[in-house]
Amino acid sequence: MRTTILLCRLLLGLIFLGAGFNGYLVIFGQPPIFPTSPPAMEFLQGYLLVLVKTVEIVCGLGLLLNFFVPLSLVILAPVAVNILTFHLFADPSLLPLGIIVFVLQCFLLWAYRDHYKSLLQPKAFPK
């Protein structure tokens, strides 16, 4: 099981790191290395594209380096949901990648679920 978690973490980290760098190529007017979604690039213009791609790079590195993995997964969760829903409803050309990202994200959130128990307390009090 640990090997499966490691492989999923590394794959998700590579996907997000690659997508982040690919997005920065688009931002700087260079041709992307990997296929991109023209509707997504049109939708995410300006600071929002820079913000999302920076988050993907930083959290992708966190996953690859095994550094702040639970935090990276929490930060990437809304990104993964948006990737899936965007490709499901607006641009189905990259839907398989969106499904892969979503499944890996869900699996890793489940694998690291013990790290989130303190976040799911119905009432919390400061110490």
Order of helices and strands: HHHHH
> How many distinct helices?
5
Mean residue pLDDT: 92
Q: Which residues sit in consecutive blocks of at least 5 with pLDDT less than 50?
A: none
Instruction: Note the main sheet.
Output: none
β-strand percent reads under 5%
Give me the Rg, rounded. 16 Å
Total separate domains: 1
Global structural class: mainly alpha
Q: Which descriptor suits the 3D outline?
A: globular
Helix percentage: over 70%
Q: State the total count of DSSP E strands.
A: 0
The end-to-end span amounts to 36 Å
Keywords: Membrane, Transmembrane, Transmembrane helix
Protein name: DoxX family protein
Could you walk me through the main structural features you see in this protein, from its secondary elements to its overall organization?
The chain has one domain (2-115). The chain is built from 5 helices and no strands. It has helices at 2-27, 38-43, 47-65, 69-89, 95-111. The longest helix is centred in the first third of the chain and has 26 residues, at 2-27. It starts with a helix and ends in a 16-residue tail after the last helix. It comes from Brevibacillus borstelensis AK1. This is DoxX family protein.
